Every structure is written in structure tokens, then in C-alpha cells.
Amino acid sequence: MIPRTFEYFSPRTLPEALSLLQKLGSEAKLLSGGQSLIPMMKLRLVSPQYIVDINRIPDLDYITESNGQLTIGALTREHEVETSELVRSKFPILADTAKVIADPLVRSQATVCGNLAHGDPANDHPATMLALGATVVATGPKGRREIKIEDFFPGLFTTALETEEILTEIRIPLPPPQSGGAYLKLERKVGDFATAGVAAQITLDGSGICQRAGVGLTNVGLTPIKAKKAEAFLVGQTLDDATIKQAAELAASESQPMDDIRGSADYKRDLVRVLAARALGRARVRAKGGA
Amino acid sequence: MAKVPIKVKVNGVEHAAEVEPRMLLVHLIRETLRLTGTHIGCDTSHCGACTVGMDGRAIKSCTASAVQADGRDITPVEGLEENGKLHPLQDGFFQEHGLQCGYCTPGMLMTGYAFLKVNTNPTDDEIRHAISGNLCRCTGYVNIVKAYQYAAQKLREGGA
């Protein structure tokens, strides 16, 4: 399988990439890790006229902690996230997520920002970023703007990015003490998309009451889903098993799965319930200092 | 469509080529450079038969374009043997019967080559995770894991 012909550009700077996007318009597609785009081009599901390869732009590959947030650059590979000590120690939910994406070979190339910018509801990072309350930075000809992750996925395979913008950074607020999170995914085999996935991030106070809750759902709707009812229910509650059970039921009610080869809608909805309860359970353990 | 000039270092040797941007890296390796040790299996990013090293990392060469390899260091399976002597991984696959039909083997070897550089003393479980992007339809993986362990031990002993 070979993609249709296209013209290839390999800008060396961000301004150069931005002016190319401006010049080439909507027929241009950005190439970063390429682990979704290239297979789609080979299947000819997409056939862009122009490819703007950003891999040679320096200084876009980083994971850093500054000003109370974790920042991830446009070219940071999944492999880096999976093996980062900073991520493992402060964002175990993010390490959980990276290590269940595709397979290790794909993760050598695939980028975290690409996982979001692709706008695929089956991708794993969107749910986790929703649970963490992340912000993305879009850089365009007029400069940079921040977009809240909950506003980033307006529709199927659609993002809030303009055609002339590049997703250059993800910003995640550092969770307060006594926070914990987990991402759980059921996949039929390694490399498959999730049958369903649930990300849960919570913050407890000294007496075990939930101060903050984020719950995101993978591949059970046309977009990644922020389970707002479950989140609202959790805040102010003592995070015991009964609370978790009820929150998981709410999360399941907020999913909008469809029948497909991975299972029936009913099965997936129930799967969300089970995974949400387990993810919240693990988040609670981690919030109390466990693994 | 205009061809693009590229320079790629393959197993230590510089190659210059003019390629269509849509040419996949695996086709550059197999058809332009005639290094047919790298296999094309599923051609859909699932099986890992086309795995090669790129700047030290194992990647699927069916899911990268040749132009992306411009200026990079590519290691296909032919790079493992040195002066007629098999690499410990290749020896391991031989000693432990890590293959039957051999189709997945180049990919298994190149995943292992990158993996054992960063994990010199892996557990069986870590090996199984490392090869989760490489499919074998013959062996059930048991002997492949043994072959990795064989190689890991030889490499630790300095028997490269």
C-alpha cells in the first residue's frame, strides 16, 4: 500500500512551518510521529496534497516541570513519556496511558500532541488530559493561544485547531498533595484501539473527602467524553466503595457507545462502569501514597 | 511529482538517493538498496516484520517515509552480523530455536537489538512487553523469549 503522491516540505523552524501552513491552506497536513497519518495515507483514507514534516524543527521535544505545571512539547514521543521519571513519579496516570498506546515500536515514533491533534475519540490521551484538566497551546500566524482540553474536541475527528495552527505544547497543572490518578483500557489485543477506556484523577483532603475529580472516557462516543456528572457527584464525598460504585454508574450513563466489532453498546457501557470503578479505586490508592 | 534528494546512513554506509516523497522507508531499504532481509508483513503497522533501527530506536519501516530518514542512521538486520560472525541475538535464535518459518525474525531481531541496549538484564515479562509489537505466528514466543535471554547473557559476558 502506497500513499497517493504529495509534495513534501521539511521546515527547520516553527515560523517557517507556520508560513507554509498559511500558504498551503487546508490541503496541507502536518506530519509529526506519523503513526496514525501514514497508515491512513497508505489506506488512502486521507490523501493530502502537501505534507509539512515538523520533525526537523529543534526544541519541540521536551517534558519539563515549571511554574506549577508539566509541559510536553509537540515532538515528545510516547516512549519518552512512558520512561520519564518525572511523569512516573508525579503523573502515574500519564505513564499508564502512554504504555497502553499501540505497541513499543509505534511508541518510538508516535507523539503525545499528535495523539490529541488527530481528534480520534479512540485515542487514549484525550481522556487522560480531560481527567487532568490540561490545556493545549496552539501556535498560529497571530501568535499563541491556550485552549482548554474540554473545548478541544468539538466533533468526530475535529479539533479546535485552525488550519494554520500547530499544537505546540500541552500544559498540565501539577496535582496538589494527596492526588492520584489511573488510566485503564480494555483492548482485544496489543495495538488495538480501546474497546473502552477510563481515566480518573482525584484529590483528597486529610479526612479522605474528594476535593477534585476528573473522569475522561475513551472510544465510547463521537468525541472523547468528560464524565461531568460523575465528577460533580464525587466532589465533597468521602471516597469509599459505595461512592466509587455510584460514580462509576454515572460515568457509564454518560458514555455514548455504539455497536461495532469490539462489542455491543450495552457491553461497552457496562465496561465503562467496571473500568471507572477500578480506575477510581486505583486513583484512591495512589492518592494515599500507594502504587 | 518531484523527487527529493536524500542521504541516509545504512549500516554505517552513506547512501544518496532521489525518492518520491510517498516512498516508504521499507521500500527504500528493500528495493533501492536491495537489502531484502527486512520483511514486509502486514503493511498496516501491526506485525513488526519491517522493524529496523533508526538513530538507535526500533521503528516500523512500513510506517515511515524514506524522506523522513534523510540524515538519519538506519540499521536493518544485515547490520547485526560482523565479519562473518553472528550477533549474539542471531546466535540465540539459532541455539534456542527462536524461529520456524523465519518471516518475523528480522523484526524480532531488530526490536531485540534496540531493547537489549537499554535493558541488559531483562525479565521474561519485560521481554514479552518489548516484543508486543512483533507478531510471530509459528513459535508461540516461548523460544523467542529464550533467545533474547541467551543473547542478553552473552552480551553481559561481553561476547559480542
Task: Write out key terms for the chains shown.
heterodimer, A: 291 residues, alpha+beta, Uridine Diphospho-n-acetylenolpyruvylglucosamine Reductase, domain 2, Uridine Diphospho-n-acetylenolpyruvylglucosamine Reductase, domain 3, Enolase-like, domain 1, 3 domains, five-stranded antiparallel sheet, four-stranded antiparallel sheet, 11 helices, 34% helix, B: 160 residues, Ubiquitin-like (UB roll), DNA polymerase, domain 1, 2 domains, five-stranded mixed sheet, 32% helix, globular
In short, what is this structure?
Chain A is of the alpha+beta class. Chain A is 34% helix and 23% strand.
What does this structure look like?
The complex is a heterodimer of chains A (291) and B (160). By secondary structure, chain A is of the alpha+beta class. Chain A contains 11 helices and 12 strands. Chain A has helices spanning 14-24, 37-42, 78-83, 85-90, 92-98, 104-109, 112-117, 125-132, 228-234, 241-254, 265-287, and strands at residues 7-9, 28-31, 50-53, 63-66, 69-73, 135-140, 143-148, 166-173, 179-186, 196-204, 210-218, 225-226. A 5-stranded antiparallel β-sheet of chain A has the order 4-5-8-6-7. In chain A, strands 9-10-11-12 form a 4-stranded antiparallel β-sheet, with helices on both faces. In chain A, strands 1-3-2 form a 3-stranded parallel β-sheet, with helices on one face. In chain A, 53% of the residues are buried. Chain B folds into 2 domains: 4-78, Roll (Ubiquitin-like (UB roll)); 88-156, DNA polymerase, domain 1 (Orthogonal Bundle). Chain B is built from 5 helices and 5 strands; from the N terminus they run E-E-H-E-E-E-H-H-H-H. A 5-stranded mixed β-sheet of chain B has the order 2-1-5-3-4, sandwiched between helices. In chain B, helix 2 packs across helix 5. Chain B starts with a strand and ends with a helix. The model of chain B has no long low-confidence stretch (mean pLDDT 96). The interface between A and B is medium-sized, with 30 and 33 residues.
